[in-house]
Write a structure and sequence with these properties.
- This protein has about 450 residues and is an alpha/beta fold.
- It folds into three domains: about 40 residues; about 325 residues, SGNH hydrolase (Rossmann fold, 3-Layer(aba) Sandwich), CATH 3.40.50.1110; about 60 residues, no CATH class.
- Helices cover about 35% and strands about 15% of the residues.
- It is built from 16 helices and 14 strands.
- The strands form four sheets. Strands 4-3-5-8-9 form a five-stranded parallel beta sheet, with helices on both faces.
Length: about 450
Amino acid sequence: MKIKRVEILLTLFSTIIAVILGLLLIRWLQPSLLGMPSDMVLVSSSEKVVPYYENIFRKQDILSNEFILKDPLVRVRARQLYPDMNAIGPNDILGFRNAAVPNNADVIIIGDSQTYGNNAHMVENWPHYFAGLLPNGVSVYSMATGGWGAVQYYYAALKAPAFSPKVIIVAFYTGNDPLETYSMVYGSDVWNEFISESSLNKNDVPPIESSLTENKQWAVTFSDGVKTVFTPALRHSTNKQHPVIDAAYQSMIKVANKISTHAVEDNIHVIFTLIPTKEYVYAKKIEYERIEMNSAYKVLIRDEKTRIQEFSNALTSIDNTSYIDVINDLQEAALGKDALYPPDSNGHPVAKGYKVIGETIARGMSDILQPAAANGLAVVLTADESIKILVFIENKQYWFVDVPDDLITSTKIEVNQVIKKRDLTGFLYSGHKNIQEVVRVK
C-alpha cells in the first residue's frame, strides 16, 4: 500500500509539473491562447530579436557631430535626422537624403555621394531633378550615401523591395567605386562572395595618389571663363591598368548581376548608369579648345575610357535590366558656358551638372514607367497579398472606393482587374469615391 501511495504521489507530482511547464511554454510561444494580448508580451533583447527602436533612435548617433557614422556591414552610413546644411542634408530617419520615408516608392535610387548630391541643395541633386520630370503620381526614394561602392549598392538593393518599387536605379561612379568595392570585397569576410581573383588580397592595393599637393593638380580656364581644377593622378588610381583594378571592376560586374537576379524574383526592373569623373566629362571640351593636356590627365582619359567601355558593355549585357548612358549628355553640356562642376578640385557636380544627369535618366525611363492598369474598378493587392483594396481608375487618376457596411454583402461588384500597388505607377491619387459614384448598385 505504501508503494502504491508513493507511485500515486509521484504520478500526481509529475502531472502537475508537466502542466506547469506546458502552460509556461504556451505563454512564451503563443500567449494569446492564455488570454494575454501580444502587445503585452515582453521580449528579451537578443541576436534573434534586434532592439529596433534603440538602433533607429540611438541617441549617440542623433546627437553626433559627425555626418558619416561607422557600420559593421556597410562600413559607413550617413547620420539619421541630419539637418539641412545646404550642401548636405537633410537626412531622413534612415540616414538617406529625403524629406521623409514613404510607405511605398515607385522608383528607388541607389548610389554614392554623386547621387546623394554633395555641393548642392537637396532639391538640386539629380534624384530630385529626375523626380520632377516623371508623370504625376510617381514617387521616388533615394538610398544614396557618400563613401559607398558596389557592395553597399547591393545591400541597399536587398532592402529596397520593402518599398514595393517598380524600378531600382543603381548609379556607379568611376571616380572611386572600384577601389571602395575592392576594399569591401577583399577586406571583409561578409562580402567575399564577390571576390573575382583569389590570388589577390587587401594588401595588394596600389598606392593612391594624393590630390592635395599642387603638382598633383591641373588648373584649367576655358575660353568661356569656366574654371576648374583637375586631379588626374588621384582619379587614375581607380582606373589604371592594374590587377587590383581589374579585379575590382569584375567584382562590380558580379554585384550588378546579383542585384539583377534578386530584382527579377521581386518583379522589379533594374536600371544601371555610370557617372564618370569630372576629368572625363570635360575631356571633349579640352579637345575641342585644343588645350594641351598634361601627361597625368592624358593617361587618365585613356584608361578611364577603356574602363567605361568595358564596364558599360558588361552592364548592358545583363538580362532583364536597362542601361542609360549619361556620359555623352554630360560631355555635350560641358561644351556650354554653364559650369557643371566647382572651380576648385572638388569632383562632385554643382546643380547644373546634376540637372543633366537627372534629365537624361528621366528621358530614358519614359517607356518603363508607363501605367500598367486600365480604367475601371480594380482590386489592389498589397506586397504580401494579405490585404485587398478597391480602387477606381480613370484618366490616369485613381480613387479609393468606399463601400458602406449595408452594401458590402448585398451589392454585386464587377471588378475589371486585380493589380498590385506598383501597377498604379503613373496614376495620380485623387482621394475617395463612394461605390455608388462609380458603379450601378445591384
